[in-house]
Amino acid sequence: MATQKTIVRLGEFEMAISHPDKLIWPELGITKLSYIQILAELAPYLLPYSTGRYLTTIRFPEGIHGVSFYQKNAPNPTPDYVRVSPDGNIRYVVMDSIPTLLWMGSLYSLEFHVSSDEIDNPLPNTWMLDMDPTLEEEPRLMEATSLVGQLLDSLGLHAVPKTSGATGVQIVMPIERGPSFDDLRRFGKFVSEYLVAQNPGLFTVERLKKDRGDLIYLDYLQHYAGKTLPAAYSPRARPGATVSTPLAWDEVRRNVKPADFHLLNIRERLREHGDLLSAAPRQSLASILNQLPSK
């Protein structure tokens, strides 16, 4: 029996999609074909955050309830239109085009995690703080996010919160190039330890999960060369088909939930609000870093 296929066309590019009716998110009725169609619409927003970075994907060949695996090495055979960048003995996919994104989607890549470091520039252009709740559902998450924003505001800095698409939030701040990743860790350490000292019942910098109690872990170590975080607008392989979504601070104050943003409503949100992260200005951390301890 021949495998059912559908041809997807974008301009001169076309790709055959096998098993187009396979359910990827069964509870929401999202099939393989509808997922790829959604990715095509998300591409202008997602690709700026994966271009020029090493890509790690999580693949779910039988949908979100099936077996999954992380993939760093480019799958073989790799189409000619897919850019590959070697790092050590790994050939990473560089997701910098719509055809590459759709190809990854056709391979059941449901999450896109990108390196903090860029392939062609050792100096970071972004500072990030990963807020990782210990509880699967953390009712204080947006309160905690707001406290981080208030501290940054007091330093004359503006950042953008984005849901991880899972349980947490990342605070994202575009910066002017100059500081190293080690410099950014110093800044992250200062921010995190200050927040813990001011709010010991809410935050922790304890790395071991068993020692965190019910506190929210401020992981300033995760933004570093060689480490990954979910790209803005990456889907997540969770029952609600959640998407890592930049937020406005008034949404944080309204106590929105990460589950509020998913593959079935993200396109309407983007049409209405655009990409809140792309509008954020680049800021200099030089004067603040000069006042922090060197280690």
From TrEMBL:
Q: Which Gene3D superfamilies match?
A: DNA primase, PRIM domain
Pfam families documented for this protein: LigD_Prim-Pol
Q: What is the official name of this protein in its record?
A: Bifunctional non-homologous end joining protein LigD
Coiled-coil annotation reads none
All copies of the DNA ligase D polymerase domain together span: 31-276
